[in-house]
Every structure is written in structure tokens, then in C-alpha cells.
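Reference record
================
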Amino acid sequence: MEQKAFVRIRGGSALIYYGNKITGEKDLRIYLAHEFWHIIIREFYPNRKMNTQNNATLFAFFAILDKDIFYKTKAKELTHT
């Protein structure tokens, strides 16, 4: 199975790579947030043992949920065409 996104961490730097099979802005935000979770865990909890894949996916959905609601509702009130 080909990964749609992954992170490489070296020293004090991190790069998130994603492929062209990710379609749509929402999907891209989900994958980036998922990989960002891996960076957070690695940097702030390096010795903690946890199921990182499930937690990263959960974090990604919660991280973008409010943003999607914001764009669909509140942003329309705050912008002009």
C-alpha cells in the first residue's frame, strides 16, 4: 500500500511529504494534520509508547472539524464578494 503522506524528522527539522493522489483541500488538511501529530509526539513525548497511527488520525479529524464549520458558516458572515 502506497502512503499518501509521511513525515521525515531529522535534527530540528521536519518535512511532510504528500503525493498527488490526495484530492481536495479537506483531504490534504486531514493528511497534513495527521503527520503533524507525529511531529508533536516525537518532539514533546519522545519516550511515550502509544498507538500513534490511531491517535494521529483522531487528532487530524478534530483539528480540521472546527475549521470546516468555520469556513462553512462564520466565514461567510465575515467576508465580502
About this structure: Residues 5-78 form one domain. The chain has a mean pLDDT of 80. The chain has one domain: 5-78. Residues 70 and 76 are 9 Å apart (CA to CA).
